Amino acid sequence: MELNEIQDLIKFVAKSNVSEIELESKGFKLIIKNKNAETQYVTAAPVQQVFQHTIPAAAPAPQAAPVAAAPAAPVEAAAPKANSKYITVKSPMIGTYYTKPSPDKPEFVKVGDDVKTGSVLCVIEAMKLFNEIESEVSGKIVEILVKDSSPVEYDQPLFVIDPS
Predict the structure, then answer these.
(1) Comparing 16-25, 74-83, 141-150, which segment has the lowest mean pLDDT?
(2) Which of 41, 82, 99, 112 could form a disulfide with 148 if both were Cys (CB 3.0 to 4.6 A apart)?
(3) Are 80 and 158 part of one and the same domain?
C-alpha cells in the first residue's frame, strides 16, 4: 500500500461518519480510528514497524463496527417494514457505490427487476478496487436505498428485496 493511498483513506475517514477502519494483508496491518472531533489516530504496522500519526478530524463520528471486506453483501431481515418478508442487502465495506460497471453501460438492477442468487447488484469502489456486490437471495428489487456515486458505510442498507 502506497503513502498516497493511506492519505486518501485517512481523508475519507475524516469526512465520513466512520469511527474505525482496519485493513490487513500479508505482513501489513492498517488501523485508522476517528475517536472524536479533535483527534484521529492512524497506526500502520508493516511487518515489525509501528507508525503513529495524529491529524484533526473533520467532525465527530459515532461508534461503528470495524470494516471487513467480503465477497458478497450480508443479508438480513429488513428493519420494521410494512411487510416483514423483505430482505435488506447491506454493504460489506465502506467505499463509493456505483449502479453501473462503467458510465456508458446500463445499470446492474432497477426497482422491479428480478434477481437470482449470485446476480451482481452494484459495485463498491474501495481503495481503487471495484468490488461486485452479489445477491445472496433470489427475488424482486423493491427499493434501492443509495444513489449512484454516493459514499457508503459498512453495514449500510443498499437494497430491499422481496424473496417471494
Answers:
(1) 74-83
(2) 99
(3) yes
